[in-house]
Write a structure and sequence with these properties.
alpha/beta; single chain; 723 residues; eight-stranded parallel beta sheet; 20 helices
Length: 723
Amino acid sequence: MILLEGIRVTKITALLEQMTLEEKIFQLMQLTPNFLSEDDANLTGPLAWMGVTESMVNNVGSVLSAVGAKETIALQKKYMENSRLGIPLLLMADIIHGYRTIFPVTLAIASTWDMELAERSAAIAAKESAVTGIHVTFAPMVDLVRDPRWGRVMESTGEDPFLNSEYARAFVRGFQGEDLTGDMDRVAACVKHFAAYGAAEGGRDYNTVNMSERQLRESYLPAYKAALDEGCEMVMTAFNTVDGIPATGNKWLMRNLLRDEWGFDGMLISDWGAVSEMIPHGVAADGAEAAQKAIEAGVDMEMMTSNYANHLKELVEAGKVDISLIDECVLRVLKLKDKLGLFENPYRAASEEREKEVLLCDEHRAAAREIAAKSCVLLKNEQALPLRSGQKLALIGPFAESGDILGPWSIWGKQEEAVQLHAGLSARTDLIATAKGCDIDSGSEEQLQEAVNVAADADIIILALGESSEMSGEAGSRGDIRLPQAQLKLIQKLKPLGKPMVVVLFNGRPLDLHGVIEEVDALLEAWFPGTEGGNAIADVLFGDVNPSGRLTMSFPYSVGQVPIYYNNYNTGRPLTPQNANERYVSKYLDMPNAPLLPFGYGLSYTSFTYGEVSLSTDELHAEDTLQVSVEVSNTGSVAGEEVVQLYVRDIAGEVVRPLKELKGFRKLQLQPGETVKVTFSINEEQLCYYHTDLQLKSDAGEFHVFVGPNSRDLEAKAFRFVK
């Protein structure tokens, strides 16, 4: 096998030696399919500003966002006919939470706390993508996020580095499988956005990121590293700055850290236009300087700008860029093409016939339904759910009959194929009437009155409320994260009827739920649930599925608290129950410090009780393991799933430590009356953190361990760590 790999490397190197400088440079360019279309008029049209020539198009290394097997096969065929050396195209796309079968948005998948489900969603997305001719997906997005104003939180798995790392591994396994070369149903994964894009100031997309290297390493880098440790083939640069330098031109980040320290030798691609964006960032005077900084940082491929194509040759000839930098980038591009088997079969798995069988098949729909149901988080329930047989339902709200439930980054999903909430409920009962009540962000008195009339004849009101998909996702930052006033007014209009009210929320971020949660009897967070959303929500509302989702981002009491996250630091004047009436402590005068709903929170149709937490020893030595045990019982009347969570706190570190850090969790399925003993292990590695010298090591001293159903409601025990 080693010999075979050596032969292949030699073959790729020999190919590189045959390439002209221009052919090498053009391999480092990615364009959209219209550049390669039969109609070459686009080369002199609106995109002519890029300076794209026919020679560039004939030798371009990659195309992004081609649609369907017919197009990808045609693109590859035409390209190969013009390729002097027979180098195939790499076809890439944003397959974030499904290709044609759309799963819930990633933040919702994270709410399952189930790595097997996450991996399965990625495997199905990979299969549907591969059969259409896609080779690489721009996922997983593993940016840690603490600010729900940022629209792209819907692509993330939340605010915790440990949990994000577990999901990063799961998604990479799902996309790539165990044999990327031989398994035609897999695609290469591209982890993004490197690095710390989720920390954009003010929650505003594309904005500045500014933090210490210690914080970067401790909180923001672990999930990227986890994806690479799992074998992720590609990395995408972030739009933001890191330590004052845009990531795409950040030599320390990309060469010193990613390449040298972590040993990543896979392909590095810029985000869309990010090389050119170094000019408005203010670190490059023009396209030539932007190209030089990106290639020196080790960016292998430039997405949708032409700085490499237009300037690298002149930079080499002027002695400003060593050709060896270009050669190493081209080699990484060629190696990925070779690993995907494209030299032998440039079409890989693309098949129009098989595409008809695979896309949106029954098996994939069933998986989407299961994952959507398990991603729902029950946030409140005052005996309103589950629904009972014979109840007359009034389904009201802008999402009652809306297909806009796929969410952002569902490019190839079709709203008309999505199961609307009304359809899902109607499949279960004939006792249902509907009214829109209002639009997403506007309404009329006529709509309100219609809603009142429909609700007056019902036993229970189900309000389908939330954000449109355009209100979150990329460029979907919001300063006010409450529901639009029209929807809050609808709740107030229906409240005097005195009917039980259940809200089903469709959204891509944690919201400020004031005006909702205190007014209704039950609140189900459904996120953007995907293709099978209506069926999955009906399964939960009627009790066929007991909700088991748990939040992976805190829901703020008010936007004024953000960024807000459970694993925060203490202050020198912390707020405590004992000093709550004192002024000179760290608190707000007009709201609590704590979030409205904490990380890890979620309710069930049953109840769980926890016994006393026990430790195998109260003194952990460096070479040993500490066992943490607790008995968990289902004390309700129906089967349910509970997520038992383990947290640790270092009481006195070299630098301040978080009040809690998630170190483990178990998802249990318990029958009524069943009790299970859960045991976690803690060792020295789990107690390590980055010290002032940026070395990962532990402290001797006192630690607290916490166990419970969420990051707030916990029982604590103390132990000492002895080195």
